[in-house]
Amino acid sequence: MGRFDGPNRQSRRAILAVASTVATAGCLDTLQTGGSDGKQSQTDTAVDGATDTKLSDEQTATETETPESHPLAGRTAVVSIEQVEADRTRLEQLLGEAITFWNENHEQYLSYTTTLEYKPAADDPTIAVSERSSIDDCGIHDGGDFAGCATYLTAGDDEGLPADVRLVPDESDWLYRMVIKHELGHVLGLSHEDEPANIMATAIKKRFPEFEKRQTVLDLRDQWVMEYNAAADTLSTAFDHAENGEYEAAAREYETAGEQYRAAAKLITSASETATELSTFEPANRDRLLEMLDSEQAFVDSMQSAIKRLHAGSKQIVADEDGYETYNKGVDLYNATIQQSLPETEAYIAAVGLVHITVESDDE
After folding, report:
1. In the chain, how long is the greatest CA-to-CA distance?
2. What is the pLDDT of residues 278-326, one digit of tens each?
3. 111-125, pLDDT tens digit by residue?
4. What CATH architecture applies to the domain 27-34+69-201?
5. Which element (helix H / strand E) includes 131?
6. Where does the record place Polar residues bias (predicted)?
7. Residues 183-217, buried b or exposed e (16+ Cβ, 10 A)?
8. Which uninterrupted H or E stretch holds 260?
């Protein structure tokens, strides 16, 4: 769309996509007991692992069966990698970091003591780790799309060894490391209701630091995108009126578009204020996030300036004043503004840190 001295012009319009997050995190597998039909089955185990036995009159307290212990209790569990889908060095590094975490913190979260030890080529590992290109089923949680799946070991589940941990590599080290920690937590006997919640919880907001603020930034940005798209529709209508020489109607539409862009500017300002409150942590990139918000703020400011000229020029033309020069300045600024490159939605979500997250539904 170029300069013009009359109604002839070609309208330009761009639409942005609203941001959205992807939900997912590792799930647990049921214990494979190897039933007679060869199919996987689930073993129901008492919370404390005790045998539910009714005492007879002849039994004494000393004859009561003692609680069973976790298969990894009081021993060193050898962790080995059975299959690599992507980068072995990277997997070994992230797996090693996850193992270190549990070795340093297991006494805080487990009712027993154990040690995890990585051996790259163990003949008889206690925990077998393998990468997969995808995981379509995970025990009772079949039919999903999982980032990880592991044998859920509880007290007395000795038949569950060696425990199986399946992983789908993620591009983010932080997210992939979190999934590995999550799956090892299941092997250690932790469920989704157990601490540490930032690793084991099903709820996404419990897994990620400052989740509410990050989600607020995305929500505000989504609202500004909707305001932008509404303004784009309004501008399209205004340009159509101007093309037909209906400058009075065009002026009204330009005024409405200006109000919509002012609303968009306030939303970006609010998003920026929230973003500045975020700490610098993985997997978010706060500096990149603020940079993208600044670019969108500059875009909106430039568009507002263009609309002011378009509105003023239209009003002058209606008043039989020489408003074409002002109007054309608005057209030029509008054309220059829409050529600016706005951040891709995927990059925006990645900078906030809420991307490629896997979570189970509440009933899982």
Report:
1. 111
2. 887 777 788 999 999 999 999 999 999 999 999 999 999 999 888 999 9
3. 999 999 999 888 899
4. 3-Layer(aba) Sandwich (3.40)
5. strand 127-131
6. 32-45
7. bbbbbbbbebebebeebbbbebeebbebbeebbbb
8. helix 247-276
